[in-house]
Specification:
Elements: E1 14-17, H1 22-33, E2 38-42, E3 50-51, E4 69-72, H2 79-84, H3 86-106, E5 110-116, H4 138-153, E6 157-162, E7 164-166, H5 172-182, E8 187-190, E9 194-195, E10 197-199, H6 200-212, E11 217-221, E12 227-228, H7 229-239, E13 247-250, H8 271-277, H9 284-292, H10 297-303
Parallel strand pairs: 1-2, 1-4, 2-3, 4-5, 5-6, 6-11, 7-10, 8-13
Antiparallel strand pairs: 9-12
Helix pairs in contact: 1-6, 3-4, 7-9
Length: about 300
């Protein structure tokens, strides 16, 4: 049964739930740059944000508010945290998220829900949107539960499954590798763990396009292939003009990264979105060059060709 409200008098502003994260920040930046009115929620007390905490959900601040589209980016995304506290994180990632989505649907708001490649088990190369889902970890099961509720209840939402999102300003492992190499020190990267990078700005752009055209169903955003973290670190070093020989391969152990978090095939089939919006499909190498390139991009392309 659908909970769609009448679209008679929808407001023109958008709602961004989770505007502090990598993708949320980029969505907000792009919406503002395009002249769109956007309101952001925050669990912190900020004068420029609507107070909303999924851990203690109170929908009062949204009462009577109508939005053109809502981008749902807030979640506990740390997979270990979800595994160690499944009840608490289920309450945030599933129960509160769905309560919010049902409320927004009742007000006639279209939604874009940020999901994950973790709804798959990673044993099938480049699964399409309609492939069987079989998550191996708590985070993936939580994302799947929301997807299934959206499908079952007919909630007006596009489900965007993403792979490893990277930004132009490196963070996490990429930042650590850069810092080590810049000091002339070894950078250790996993040889038995793969990633399929996708640019943060591409995810934000895709979310805005899906929301703007009120698209429904699942959509994949991914590079066309995956590569080991070791290869990604070497390519990043080449792109930035840093010594590749200092990048060292190391097989991660079960204690370091349990198998439930690993995907043998990390890439998703992104042809549906590419064909619908005439968007480019990029290899993992091309995504890395685009994100970490600049002055060294052309040389990197020549060196690794």
């Amino acid at each position: 049964m659908s909970v769609l409200a009448s679209p008679a008098s929808l407001a023109g502003s958008d709602l961004l739930v989770g505007g502090d994260g990598l993708i949320g920040t980029e969505i907000a930046r792009r919406l503002h740059a395009g002249g769109h009115a956007v309101e952001v929620t925050s669990r912190r007390l900020r004068p420029d944000a609507i107070p909303l905490d999924l851990a203690r959900l109170d929908l009062t601040p949204l009462a009577g508010r109508k939005f053109r589209c809502a981008f749902l980016c807030a979640a506990v995304a740390n997979m270990r945290a979800c595994e160690e506290a499944p009840g608490e994180t289920w309450g945030i990632n599933v129960d509160a998220t769905l309560a919010l989505m049902r409320h927004l649907a009742g007000e006639g708001t279209h939604m874009v829900y940020l999901s994950s490649a973790q709804v798959f088990d990673g044993e099938t190369p480049r699964p399409a949107e309609d492939a069987s889902r079989a998550p191996k970890n708590a985070y993936g099961r939580q994302k799947l539960a929301v997807e299934q509720a959206v499908e079952r209840e007919g909630l007006p939402a596009a489900i965007v499954r993403v792979t490893k999102v990277i930004a132009r300003k490196p963070d996490g492992l990429f930042r650590s590798w850069l810092d080590s190499l810049a000091r002339g020190e070894p950078a250790v990267a996993a040889s038995n763990l793969t990633l399929a990078p996708v640019a943060a700005e591409d995810v934000a752009s895709a979310a805005i396009r899906l929301g703007g055209e009120r698209c429904l169903g699942a959509w994949h955003l991914s590079s066309t292939d995956e590569l080991p973290y070791f290869d990604a670190a070497r390519q990043m070093a080449a792109i930035r003009g840093l010594p590749q020989h200092l990048v060292r391969a190391e097989a991660v152990t079960e204690a370091q990264v349990p198998a439930i978090y690993r995907h043998r095939f990390a890439a998703l089939d992104g042809r549906k979105f590419a064909q619908r919006f005439d968007a480019p499909l990029r290899s993992a190498r091309d995504v890395l060059i685009a994100q970490f390139g600049g002055a060294h991009a052309a040389a990197a392309a020549a060196n690794s060709a």
